[in-house]
Amino acid sequence: MNNASLKKDYIFFIQSELPKPEAHLVQFTNAANGAANLGYSTVLVYPDKGLGTINPVNLARPFQPREAPENLVKYYNLHHKLKVAPLPMPWPIDYFDSKFTNSNTIAAKYYFPFHIFPTTKLVHSRNWNLIKAAIKNGIAAIYEHHHHEDKKFEPEIVKSPLFQIAVTVVDPIRESMINNGMPPEKTIRLHNGFNRLFMLRQPEKAAAWREKLLKNGQSHLVVYAGALQKFKGIDILIEVAKEMPNVQFACAGGKPKEVEHYQQLAKEKQVNNIIFLGYVLHDELASLLQAADILAHPHCSGQAATFTSPLKLFDYFASGTPIVATEIPSLKEFNNTQAIAAWCEPDNPIKFAESLKRVLETYPRKIDGYLEIIEFVKQFSWENRAAKILSYVDESLRPALIA
């Protein structure tokens, strides 16, 4: 058997331990999951600093693809076709500020060239160092880039025939990438997607959420899911809740310190009808979104509004629940669709509250959701996104189909 016949894997590499609640990790794990669901031999690779990393066997054979552990499956709502390969990163890796003990360097210079590239057909990553390492080792690569960054892309990498495509989610980022040397013909804008499990109706779990969250005779529930940061509109949402004391608000997401901060802020403002749930596992989040009367997307104006990826918005759509959103540049293409029940100007809690009240009057809650919203989102599945990306990859460089 020659070496070429061993090259079958579609490798997704992320430079972070898993699981964690950050949006970019949700995005990338689901992107890998979508490719696996299409039947490609897909492996999600990430660093592991747990106790098992000191095992000599694991260090000698660090690349051991396996089924995703149940905690990862539940955390990100993954399917069982996706394989994972945590790379052991024992002490002193990342404990000292040196490139020789940096996990990024260890992965790109040691683990991948010697243990992973021999069976790799295609690499997909947000990590530019790994993209360069792949090209230099004769491996085709796809680069994901979702934020403004003032760096020049090396011509010898981006012009290589092995460099297949660069993917971003909004036009301003695409333009900045091109200005920094990325070839326009290799740079595409493509929306994120929704997890198919969010579309499965869960009426019993949704009813349980409503029973848990609706208190004191309340009958309406407004839910926000996503990062707990000011530019996301959380401060605005607290003000909105103050304007609507008979409606219960619930926020899912955020790190413990962020949850604590906003709990204290709501308490200081004497807003008692908003609750911060912290990070909700994705296998529970779908039913929470279905439990809501309205889903809130209160993003503020400003620089972030020009490039924010509406990742959570697609899971909102999949729930079939009416959405109230602020008019920001990255959402403008959805203005003329029925997928958003109401729009309002950003940074204005009074206007947002008025929009919520109007939607509560005109969109009664449906246990099965609004079918026109669900139909609209079907085009944005992670599987469709993966297929679109791979359509830009030379057929001879595509990974193996195993199912």
From TrEMBL:
Lineage: Bacteria, Bacillati, Cyanobacteriota, Cyanophyceae, Nostocales
Keyword Metal-binding in annotation: no
This protein's name: Glycosyltransferase
Domain spans labelled Glycosyl transferase family: 208-362
Any one GO MF annotation of this record: glycosyltransferase activity
Organism: Dendronalium phyllosphericum CENA369
BP-aspect Gene Ontology terms: lipopolysaccharide biosynthetic process
InterPro entries, per database record: Glyco_trans_1
Pfam families: Glycos_transf_1 (PF00534)
Keywords: Transferase
